[in-house]
Amino acid sequence: MGDSLGSGQFGRVYRGVNSENGEFVAIKQLKSSLMDESAVVAFESEIALLEKLHHENIVRYFSVIRGQEHINLVIECTYFQVLYYCFFF
User: Fold this and answer.
1) Domains: count for the chain
2) CATH number at residue 12
3) Which residues pair with residue 11 across a beta bridge?
4) Is the separation of the CB atoms in 62 and 28 below 8 Å?
5) What is the pLDDT of residues 5-37, one digit of tens each?
6) Whole-prediction pTM
7) What are phi and psi of 81, to 5 degrees?
8) For 30, which of 50, 53, 61, 71 is 20 to 30 Å away at the CA?
9) What is d(CA 63, CA 83) in angstroms, rounded to the nearest whole number?
């Protein structure tokens, strides 16, 4: 993972690079142990919504990587997203 773009209550957002095509991605990494049941449900809802949405004005969803300690949401990294996470996350 690359530079940190921001942090929140449950984790951080990092910039990464897609190894298949070299495009920048954002990796929203949440620490599982810090999340209560309602936070997990909210995050699962976010994932389900992103999987269904396909629009030029919405960041693209790529994948979810679940580990023992972290849940990683891999999404498109845009200039506006970087600004959002830097100021509002």
Assistant:
1) 1
2) 3.30.200.20
3) 30
4) no
5) 778 777 888 988 888 888 889 898 988 888 888
6) 0.74
7) -65, -40
8) 53
9) 22
> At 77, is the secondary structure helix, strand, or coil?
coil
Burial class (CB in 10 A: 0-12, 13-18, 19+), 49: exposed
**Which parts of 8-77 are beta strand (E)?**
11-17, 24-31, 61-66, 70-76
**Would you say 25 and 16 are in contact if contact means Cβ atoms under 8 Å apart?**
yes
Q: What is the mean pLDDT of residues 31-54?
A: 85
Residue range(s) defining the domain that contains residue 76 = 4-88
The two three-digit tokens of residue 13, written as one number: 């957002």
| Residue 55 structure tokens | 């629009």
The closest alpha carbon to 21, from 62, 57, 55, belongs to: 62
